[in-house]
Amino acid sequence: MTTTRPNVLLFGVGSIGSVYAAILILSKRCSVHVVARSNYDALQKQGLTLRSSKFGDHEGLRFDGVYRTCEEAANSGTRFDYVVCSNKALLDAKPSLSDILQPVVTDGTAIVLLQNGVGVEEPLHEAFPNNTVLSACVWTGAKVLGPGEAEQFNREGLTIGVDHAEALSAEQEQKQLDVFVEMSRAGGSDVTVCDDIQSERWVKVIWNACWNAVTTATQLRTNRFLEASPQAMMLSRAIMGEVVDVARAKGLTVPDGSVDKLIEQCTSVKDGLPSSMLDDYVAGRPTEVEVILGTPLREGLRLGVPVPSLIAMYSIIKALDWKNAHPEEAKI
Ligand SMILES: *[C@@H]1O[C@H](CO)[C@@H](O)[C@H](O)[C@H]1NC(C)=O
After folding, report:
1. Distance in angstroms (rounded) separating the CA atoms of residues 271 and 36
2. What digits encode the pLDDT tens for the residues 146-190?
3. DSSP class per residue in 64-96
4. Counts of helices then strands in the chain (DSSP H, E)
5. What is the mean predicted confidence (pLDDT) over 142-147?
6. CA 69, CA 33: separation in Å to the nearest integer?
7. 5, 6, 126, 208 — which has fewest CB within 10 A?
8. Cβ(129) to ligand 1 under 6 A?
9. How many other CB atoms sit within 10 Å of the CB of residue 286?
């Protein structure tokens, strides 16, 4: 760790990445660097624009470095104290996230995960056993408005904690967490520190596993899906219930009544909801099926927890993903 301002590298500047890049720049507590692919030119020339009722409107927020790849970031000679992953979580992508991050993760670099889903930490611990992994759930609405421009809406909150690495002392991990929390708060983020981040992530994935899967499989908003048959609610409850069972079999804490609460939260939205997975599918992009359905399913099978609904939804979404990736072969 440097004694001066920490160097932070963000990997992925879509909607969520843009919000947290802006928060870190606004904190004035760190140097903020970014690896950007499609929006490299815009970020390099104009900086980042964030429109937000919570953080205000900011144009031309400047990075200390904009790079096309992690190799380029590493070749700049900067050593990164934090590498923040705000890219999509695609567990089966080749090259893997760990492979991509290899050049920028050095001694003492803390990896921060701002990704959806569960099971994202394990491959990173395997690849970087001596690096701190901070894992977070992001609670915000955000969308990309154009190259280098994003909007933040609704509330914003970050729940973050250490995902403990066997080789490291809790004290060292805690110090790296504290500094990151301090910077994020200075930038205006509502940060909650959580000492059981795995339970937090699994509770969040109960929602995603159900609503992302049913909206994508049917290409309907949640209310339309639920209105189409009485069995739709039975399926929704079954999916959620299986994720709860798997999380508890892992020894994680899921509050009683979680499923009822999540059903109520969704059905109380008058016009129902689409989902990020549905957006991805419709846009022809790969979905985050592995971290949203795949990990719960595999953990269920490993622990002997029955997961028939997860098997059904996973296999359907995988087929839709395949269809997007193979439009010619997919013709009926
Ligand atoms: C992690 O640290 C241990 C002990 O210092 C060392 O033997 C090992 O090679 C390191 N592993 C990696 C991947 O850097």
Report:
1. 35
2. 999 999 998 999 999 999 999 999 999 999 999 999 999 999 999
3. SEEESSHHHHHHTTPPPSEEEE-S---TT-SS-
4. 14, 10
5. 94
6. 12
7. 126
8. yes
9. 16
Residue 50 CA to ligand 1 center (angstroms) comes to: 40
Pairing of strands 82-85, 149-162: unpaired
Q: Go through 95-115 and write b for each residue having 16 or more CB atoms within 10 A of its CB, e for each that does not.
A: eebeebbbebbeeebbbbbbb
Q: If DSSP codes are grouped into helix, strand and coil, which group holds residue 8?
A: strand
Q: How far is the CA of 176 from the centre of ligand 1 (A)?
A: 19
Instruction: Name the residue at shortest CA distance from atom 1 of ligand 1.
Output: 130
Q: What is the pLDDT of residues 86-128, one digit of tens each?
A: 999 999 999 999 999 999 999 999 999 999 999 999 999 999 9
Cβ–ligand 1 distance for 130 under 6 Å, the answer yes
Mean pLDDT of the chain: 96
3-state secondary structure of 145: strand
Instruction: Classify the phi-psi angles of 188: left when phi > 0, otherwise alpha if psi is within -120 to 50, otherwise beta.
Output: left
Residue pair 164/194 in contact (Cβ under 8 Å)? The answer is: no
Amino acid present at 247: A
Distance from C-alpha of 97 to C-alpha of 229, rounded to nearest angstrom: 40
Terminal Cα distance for the chain, rounded: 57
> What is the whole-number distance in angstroms between the Cα of residue 165 and the centre of ligand 1?
12
Q: Which residue has the higher pLDDT, 10 or 141?
A: 10
Q: How far is CA 284 from the centre of its chain?
A: 19
Tokens (6 digits) for 59: 């144009």
Range of weakest confidence among 139-143, 170-174, 222-226: 139-143
Residue 209 CB neighbour total at 10 angstroms? 30
pLDDT for 2: 46
Residues 277, 227 contacting (CB under 8 angstroms): no
Tokens of 220: 């309907």
127 CA closest ligand 1 atom index: 13
